[in-house]
Write a structure and sequence with these properties.
The chain is an alpha+beta fold and 187 residues long. The protein has a domain of 85 residues: Beta Barrel (Lipocalin). Helices cover 30% and strands 29% of the residues. The protein has four helices and eight strands. Strands 1-2-3-4-5-6-7-8 form an eight-stranded antiparallel β-sheet, with no helix packed on it. A hairpin with a 5-residue loop joins strand 1 and strand 2. About 6% of the residues have low confidence.
Length: 187
């Protein structure tokens, strides 16, 4: 007895319909849970319905947030800001309206204080072979490079520039070429 594709298709459709009916949830009378299970369900509903924040829960949440921030935060928040009294102030104007202020002390050429984004950082001088002024703060991963024509502020953690084309008032002046005297014609 040969079965036609029409009969196979009809049998397959019937099988799928039967599976769908068997898998559908039964909407008959709800089953009674075990008495202990009902107590557990009631306790869960009470906890989710009335979230109570006790002092311990708030402290635990704050500790969790602080731990997560400490793990992700690479810069210590309690680092003391440097003392900038009796320092020479140099203000730099950078691209994209960024501002950097450098505080330097004549008695200490191994350190500077750098103001960036409303925070004052102490940077330590690092020697270079090119003669550029390089200062670093390893805690905040800031690098200031000063060359005669401009300054650059870098973030060594993210490997990107924070401020470029930083120029102070002296560097912003236009360069005037020395005026050469007109040559005298030899007669």
């Amino acid at each position: 007895m040969a079965t036609s594709p029409k009969h196979l298709f009809a049998a397959g459709a019937f099988a799928f319909a039967a599976i769908a009916l068997c898998a559908a949830p039964v909407s008959a009378a709800p089953e009674k849970n075990h008495p202990k299970a009902e107590d557990v369900l009631k306790a869960r509903k009470a906890k989710t319905a009335k979230p109570s924040k006790s002092k311990k829960a708030a402290a635990a949440a704050a500790a969790t947030v602080a731990t997560a921030a400490a793990a992700d935060n690479w810069a210590p928040a309690d680092e003391a800001e440097p003392d900038i009294t009796d320092t020479k102030v140099t203000e730099y104007t950078c691209e994209l309206n960024n501002k950097v202020t450098i505080y330097s002390n004549e008695n200490d050429d191994a350190h500077i204080a750098l103001r960036w984004k409303k925070r004052l950082h102490r940077l330590e001088r690092v020697g270079t072979t090119t003669g550029a002024l390089r200062f670093e703060n390893t805690n905040f991963r800031l690098i200031w490079i000063g060359i005669p024509s401009k300054g650059i502020l870098l973030d060594s953690r993210l490997n990107r520039q924070l401020a470029n084309e930083c120029k102070n008032a002296e560097q912003s002046k236009p360069v005037v070429a020395a005026a050469s005297e007109p040559k005298k014609a030899d007669a």
